[in-house]
Amino acid sequence: MSMNLEDRLNENPELKKQFDELDVYIDEKASQQGSLINVMHRAQEIFGYLPDDVLYYVAKRLNVPRSTVYGVVTFYHFFSRVPKGRHTVSVCLGTACYVRGGSTVYDRVMKTLGIKAGETSQDRRFTLDLVRCVGACGLAPVVVIDKDTYGRMTPDKVVTLLNKYA
Amino acid sequence: MIRNQLLICAGGACITSGEKSVKDVLVEELARNGIQDEVQIIETGCMGACDLGPIVVVYPEGTFYQKVNVQNAGLIVNEHLVKGRTVGGLLYTEPTSERKAQTSGDIPFYTRQVKRVLRNCGVIDPLSIEEYIARDGYFALGKALEMTPDEIIKTVQDSGLRGRGGAGFSTGIKWKATKDATGSPKYVVCNGDEGDPGAFMDRSVLEGDPHSVIEAMVIAGFAIGAATGYMYVRAEYPLAIERFEYAIGKAREYGFLGKNILNSGFDFDIEIRIGAGAFVCGEETALLRSIEGKRGTPSIKPPFPAQAGLWGKPTLINNVETYANIAPILINGADWFRSVGTSKSPGTKVFALVGKVQNTGLVEVPMGTTLRELVFDIGGGIRDGKKFKAAQTGGPSGGVITADYLDMPIDFDTVKEIGTIMGSGGLVILDEDNCMVDVAKFYLGFTVDESCGKCTPCREGTRQMYHIMERICDGKGQHSDIERLSKLANVIKDTSLCGLGQTAPNPVLSTIRFFEDEYRAHIEDKKCPAHVCKHLLTYSINPDKCVGCTACARQCLVHAITGEVKKIHVIDQSKCTKCGSCYEICRFSAIRKE
User: Fold this and answer.
1) Residue B409 falls within a domain, yes or no?
2) Nearest beta carbon to residue B293 from set A37, A107, A139
């Protein structure tokens, strides 16, 4: 990390493109009061996670202390400081899912992928998350993979399901 | 000419059950029969009966088809629409009388409901502002703009509407306090951070009838003197965000938002703020910090948001369901609103009926409805012929209602008397297979994760309580643990700053109150009566029933089961991880769980 961000951007057009995209959003939102959380949402969409570079950059652009940005990013579960896998598996352990056996589904996913909530598999195929209610309680237990929700899960069904994601 | 309309439920649960592919099949089949111009397909918001999804309703008859899938969806077109024959196999069959229901009016799940908040959910296309207007939408706004702010507030106050987010504070008093507060500008905020796990009514309103919330926010803005509104939605609800954003755009286009609304000279607009996954942000002061782009930590009250809210300015903050009640109150009057419900809790309440009940889903009933009506009449009783044990209300801030109180009318005050709260309306039904100690531990684990960390009693106290609960479930409970839990609970309640900490011990206190014998069984007899707590269980094979089919041995991931084909199998207790997969797979009920 000896090079500063500007030099790295000059060397890496891909990275430059991502920061340019973030810039457009910040220009649009900077005048709104309290836009930091919205900006971080957008940044995570662009970069997939929130590394130091992005935090420092947003702090500079919005003219807020780095500590404030760091404080916000670490407070909310939605923001990730580490890169995520190609697919995010979110097992719901809201009450309805829990009382209908969500934890047996979660245990099986953990065992199958060999990772715990918040971790990413070695091959970067999956990131495992625990969520507290996605509001599909009528079909508990529920698993969300990327943007698709699957209801009435069982430990066996979830393994078959995981195999469909490369 | 449109001769038929097909309403497809596009609520969260039905989408999960395959609504999109069902719709594709319907579109395809209509085209194949060349009747695509005669039949209109409308995707609506949640129809409530999540367990029956995907649901398709054919109008004008109102024929209610349930559990439609890609294989049988074509029948609706080819039989019903082309040949005029009802598809009997897709109708709902009433389990006791075995009668087939033609319309939703024949299904007990629906007939006992009174839909006010959910008046448009599942009835209109949420993306169509015209359909909302056709159902008296924005009529209340027109009426309000001809009233004085004081008249509006008086109507809301007279209606007796209480905040549906959980605490049940008078909505009218809140509006008045914000109007009377000095300071400008003022703000209107909608709390759409439905964090209570097990509740999804706000999601359904935002997805199924977004304009009802927009209309109410504009009315609130006019009543208290605000020009800006913030809609705070949790990030877990992307579809709600998408539909609300779309609805805002349409409302602007039609002049219900923006400058000089309906030529009244009143300006108002709404901005969406997206949460980022923090349960504490459902607490109003924490939510306001989050809108400001900060960490969502709560602050001490007073000052209340009505005096010093967003950026220190007077702010009115109400929940989604509360707002959804406003327009009908202004159209029909306060007396109409009071015509259902109890005297101190008038109106209806939407419950998310989930857990071990037959018919899960969203139900709206008059306040004062009994738990028995909800669970047995509307919910169809407990699944798999099991016994009702308790209903959990109020999520991590609430407690349980037991079988002894099945006939108690439920409203804000009665539930409080027995140590729980109404909360946002999550009603999780538990049966004999649920361990109350385990359920209380589950909620406590939730608050441990979600405590923002500002107050020590909440941050550290809930963690200590959790350790004790864990110990009890692991069979290491001590005789003094119940007393220790109660003591700790009361300190946390008394010394935490916000609602999260003050209510975090409730699930434990409430289950100790009603199920102390279950706690004692864990602690003294080292037994879990519901056979849930792993460490207190032993799996063994009943030699009289085992036929030696080897299914369990093949299923066991840790190879704890041995035995030859057609010989009795044995479980090695030292290897057994008590995962229960042998119990699940055995077709001869030969596995004993004790």
Assistant:
1) yes
2) A37
- Which uninterrupted H or E stretch holds B424? none
Nearest CA in chain B to A134: B236
> Residue for token digits 């319309």?
B103
CATH 3.40.50.2300 for domain A87-163, yes or no, is: no
Residues B235, A99: C-beta atoms closer than 8 Å = no
pLDDT digits (tens, 9 = 90+) for A108-161: 999 999 999 989 999 999 999 998 888 788 889 999 999 889 999 999 999 999
Specify the number of domains making up chain B: 5
Answer whether residue A12 shows pLDDT above 60.
Answer: yes
**How many helices, marked H, and strands, marked E, lie in chain A?**
8, 4
Residue A8: pLDDT band (50, 70, 90) is confident
d(CA B400, CA B440) in angstroms, rounded, equals 10
> Can you give the residue range of the structural domain that contains B236?
129-337
Residue B55: list chain A partners with CB under 8 A: none
Interface probe for B, chosen from A25, A40, A99, A106 (most Cβ of B below 10 Å), is: A99
Which chain B residue lies closest to A156 (C-alpha atoms)? Answer: B581
Query: Taking CB atoms and an 8 Å cut-off, how many pairs form between chains A and B?
Result: 146
Residues in chain A closer than 8 A to B17 (CB atoms): 139, 151
A139 — contact with chain B (CB < 8 Å)? yes
Q: What's the pTM?
A: 0.94
Residue B60 inside a domain? The answer is yes
B146 with B279, same domain: the answer is: yes
Q: What is the pLDDT of residue A2?
A: 54
Cα separation values, B385 from B94, B97, B254, B357, Å: 16, 17, 53, 10
Residue of B nearest to A90 (CA): B236
Which residues of A15-101 form beta strands (DSSP E)? 87-92
- How large a percentage of chain B has pLDDT more than 90? 94
The pLDDT, as a whole number, for residue B362 is: 94
SS3 state of residue B242:
helix
* A-chain residues near B53 (CB < 8 A): 138-139
A residues 12..31 contacting B (CB < 8 A): none
For position B202, what pLDDT does the model report? 96
Asked if A77's CB is within 8 angstroms of B196's CB, the reply is: no
> Taking residues B483-511, what's their average pLDDT?
96
Residue B245 shares a structural domain with residue B179? yes
Span B357-366, average pLDDT: 95
Q: Is A101 on the interface with B (CB under 8 A)?
A: no
How many whole angstroms separate alpha carbon B177 and alpha carbon B174? 5
Q: Map tokens 């009435």 to a residue.
A: A152
